[in-house]
Each structure stands twice: as C-alpha cells, then as structure tokens.
C-alpha cells in the first residue's frame, strides 16, 4: 500500500489509505478514483475538487462516506448518477448490517476498511470485479450479516435467526459480522489454529473462490486439477466431513499453505490465491518504502524471494515485540508451483481484452 500527500500543506503531509482527515491542516481527505490516490478535498458548492494539482477532478462523496462514515472514497458525478451515489467498493454490497443495533456501524466500518484494501490489491493485480449494476453474468457481491447480538461482551444467537456462515456462492461473498469483533475473531483463530485469521484474510480467501468461478470453471479446470488435485472426487461435502473428522495429514506443510487448504482442492486454490494476494500487497508496500523492487512483472520466483526476505524481517521485528509472525508460511517447491499457477492465471486475466 502506498502512502500519499496532502497538497494543502507545505511541505506536504503524509496521508494514509484509510485517512478521512489531514492531521495538520484538518482538510477532509478521501480516495480520488481519477488520480488513484488519497487526496485533500476542496469544497465547491455541493461537491468537491481533488486537491492534487495534477488532477483537479470534480468529485462527490460516496453515500456511505457522507451518511454513515464507513467509507472514505469519492466518485465522479457521472458514476454517482449511474451507481446511486455508491463508490467502486460500496456498490458491490447487497446486504449491510442492521444499523439500529449498537456496535454494528463500527463493525461494518471495519469490514469496509478491509474490503477497500482488497479492491486496491485486485486493481493492482489488474483483475476485473464487475458490480451488480454492470449487467454481467457473474457480478461480485457482498453480504455483511449477523446471526448474533453482542451481550455483555459475549455473542449469543439471535432468537429466530439462522446462523450466518462466512463463505462464497455464485459471486456472493458473505461475512459474519462477528468476524469484526476482535475478541471473538481471536477466540476463533486460536480454536481453529488459523495463524492469519484476520478480516483482510477472510476477504482474500473468499475472493479466491470467486475467481475460481470466474477464471477457472469451464475454462482452465484441467490445468488447475493437475496442480491442486481433482475437485470433483471426493465431493466437497465428503471432503468437508472427512476433514473435520480426521484433520489434515501430518505432513501438510510440505504441499499446502494451511491445514484448511488440505480439505479440498477448492479450498487449496482459495488459500493459495489468498497467499498470492499477500505477496502482491506486501511487495507493493515494501516497494513504496524502498525495501524491494520486485513486482508481478518480475515473475513469480523473484516475487517469492523478495516476499521471503521482507517477511523474515517483519517476523523478527514482530518477535521483538512479542507479536505473531506476519508471514507464517514457508513456501516449499510444491507451494511455489501452486503460486506460479495463480500468478499465470492472474496475468492472463489482467491482459485479456474486456468487452
């Protein structure tokens, strides 16, 4: 993730991806889709002008920025009319939390912050993410739902409600709102032995399932099967039952990104896709900080090498502070081959003509 500059300040103040206000000049800031940067906003009547002197675009706040303060993105007046005032991230939502319940807005804001980082990485990778309003066969949609209500710091089932399962189905990514509760998510992380159970981790995993449907299903299944295994045998339901009854094989680290990746080839693909997103995003941030120059065009082996070098440094810094490893995965030759498949798939999708 890059950092940005507030052009209202001299010298310019550094702005970060999630900022909504400059801490020095106190100007409102937000993501400008025209110059692809976080920039100060200059009010001009009912809308705003991008303060980046190289841009100066006329912008309006996303509805969820202006009315709910869970977003920091803007859009052009033309897109505001086309997408009912919703930015390129928020227009994908089909269900949002019940905002009459205390704490739901704050948890929704945390989910949206993670989703914005997801979209930044997808754009960095050059992947399509059509919205429901675009009239395509498999639009990307999100549902943020709760099956529980906070009660004295705990979670209990809401009377008469069904349990919400985080997952993906036919372009719809559903995330249970309790994943935005830090205490509950940490409990589940420990119970399920998932070192990287984070909000952004959920988004990156589930979007992997979406891109399997969009880029692999009916198009590249034979090549995917050769790398990840037969996704038709056993069935997903059979694999799921076996995994929770028996757990992963003892040597799973030799061939899989995580224990959960051993459950079924679809989960192996999604977990590997998530790791690939980790690699791209970490290298983007490290590159902005001058720590590495590796990028997707460098090839997968150069990317992995740079990621491992940066990851080793981050892990050691975290250990000095008593924190968890940022990069807990050891990339074996088998995992490298899976990452190479995902890399090639992404490059093909990014360079394919779009009509």
Polypeptide structure, described:
The radius of gyration is 21 Å and the shape is globular. The two termini are 29 Å apart. Helix 8 (265-288) packs across helix 9 (300-320). It contains ten helices and 13 strands. The chain has helices at residues 63-68, 77-82, 104-125, 182-191, 199-216, 221-228, 236-246, 265-288, 300-320, 333-351; strands at residues 4-6, 13-15, 29-32, 37-44, 47-50, 58-61, 74-75, 93-95, 141-145, 148-151, 154-157, 167-169, 172-176. The strands form four sheets. The chain has a five-stranded antiparallel sheet. The protein has 355 residues and is an alpha+beta fold. The longest helix has 24 residues, at 265-288.
Task: Give the gist of this structure.
It contains ten helices and 13 strands.
Strand content: 5-15%
Give the strand tally: 13
Compute the CA-based radius of gyration: 21 Å
Query: Helix count?
Result: 10
Q: What structural category characterises the helix and strand content?
A: alpha+beta
Largest sheet: 5 strands, antiparallel
Order of the strands making up the biggest sheet: 3-4-5-6-7
- How helical, in percent, are the residues? 40-55%
Salient structural properties:
five-stranded antiparallel sheet; 41% helix; 13 strands; 10 helices; four-stranded mixed sheet; 355 residues; alpha+beta
């Amino acid at each position: 993730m890059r950092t940005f500059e507030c052009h209202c300040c001299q010298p310019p103040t550094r702005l970060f991806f999630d900022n909504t206000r400059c801490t020095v000049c106190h100007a409102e800031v937000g993501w400008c889709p025209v110059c692809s940067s976080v920039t100060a906003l200059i009010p001009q009547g009912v809308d705003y002008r991008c303060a980046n002197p190289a841009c100066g675009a006329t912008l309006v706040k996303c509805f969820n920025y202006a009315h709910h303060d869970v977003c920091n993105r803007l859009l052009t007046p033309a897109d505001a009319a086309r997408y009912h005032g919703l930015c390129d991230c928020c227009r994908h939502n089909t269900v949002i939390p019940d905002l009459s319940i205390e704490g739901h807005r704050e948890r929704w804001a945390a989910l949206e912050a993670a989703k914005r980082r997801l979209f930044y990485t997808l754009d960095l990778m050059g992947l399509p993410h059509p919205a429901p309003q675009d009239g395509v066969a498999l639009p990307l949609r999100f549902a943020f739902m709760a099956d529980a209500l906070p009660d004295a710091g705990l979670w209990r089932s809401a009377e008469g409600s069904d349990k919400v399962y985080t997952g993906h189905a036919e372009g719809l990514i559903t995330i249970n709102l309790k994943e935005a509760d830090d205490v509950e998510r940490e409990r589940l992380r420990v119970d399920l032995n998932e070192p990287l159970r984070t909000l952004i981790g959920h988004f990156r995993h589930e979007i992997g399932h979406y891109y399997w449907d969009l880029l692999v299903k009916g198009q590249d299944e034979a090549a995917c099967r050769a790398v990840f295994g037969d996704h038709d045998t056993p069935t997903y339901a059979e694999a799921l039952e076996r995994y929770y009854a028996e757990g992963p094989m003892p040597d799973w680290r030799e061939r899989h990104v995580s224990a959960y990746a051993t459950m079924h080839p679809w989960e192996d693909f999604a977990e590997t896709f998530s790791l690939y997103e980790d690699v791209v995003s970490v290298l983007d941030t490290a590159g902005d900080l001058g720590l590495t120059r590796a990028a997707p065009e460098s090839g997968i082996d150069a990317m992995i090498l740079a990621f491992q070098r940066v990851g080793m440094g981050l892990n050691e810094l975290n250990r000095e502070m008593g924190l968890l490893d940022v990069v807990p995965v050891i990339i074996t030759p088998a995992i490298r081959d899976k990452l190479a498949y995902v890399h090639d798939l992404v490059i093909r999708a990014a360079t394919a003509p779009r009509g």
